[in-house]
Amino acid sequence: MFLSTFENKLDKKGRVSVPSSFRSYLSNLGYNGIVCYPSFNHQCLEAWPQDRIEKLTNAIDSLNPFEEKKDFFATSILAESTSLQFDSEGRILLSSKLLKHARIRTTMLFVGQGKTFQIWEPTTFEKFKVNAKKKSNINRASLKWEHKLNN
């Protein structure tokens, strides 16, 4: 899984090293890269393994082909997605369009989200994190998991 938060900087050529634990997880899934798109929920980038994008594509494809929301999701996610392959040193090259969306200049945070991760500008993420912790505390009773009985 993608866990924890890591800070990395763009190099002079605009590349950034993806955390080794994230690359290792992707490698175990059989991938040498990620699919990245501008989040429409937050001012960050969403980074997903290929199989998660395929699940999302299938969900979009299951919508009525003549409904507007199918076009909305396809345009907001799939049309904005970029496949980014790791170079020999585990770096990716983020486009200026992606960097502009997240307002990233030189430093970014890779934020684990379990099966996916996000890429944030550090100050923006810190503000989001404070709010997320408050809302998590308020909504903590809604987080439940399945209990299995031992027979």
Strand content: 15-25%
Number of helices: 5
**First-last Cα distance:** 30 Å
Largest sheet: 6 strands, antiparallel
Summarize the structure.
The protein is an alpha+beta fold and 151 residues long.
Explained architecture:
With 151 residues, the protein is an alpha+beta fold. It has one domain: 3-Layer(aba) Sandwich (Chemotaxis protein chec), CATH 3.40.1550.20. Helix content is 37%, strand content 23%. It is built from 5 helices and 8 strands. The strands form 2 sheets. The protein has a 6-stranded antiparallel beta sheet with strand order 1-7-8-4-3-5, with helices on both faces. It has a two-stranded antiparallel sheet with strand order 2-6. A hairpin with a 6-residue loop joins strand 3 and strand 4. Helix 2 runs antiparallel to helix 3. The relative contact order is 0.21.
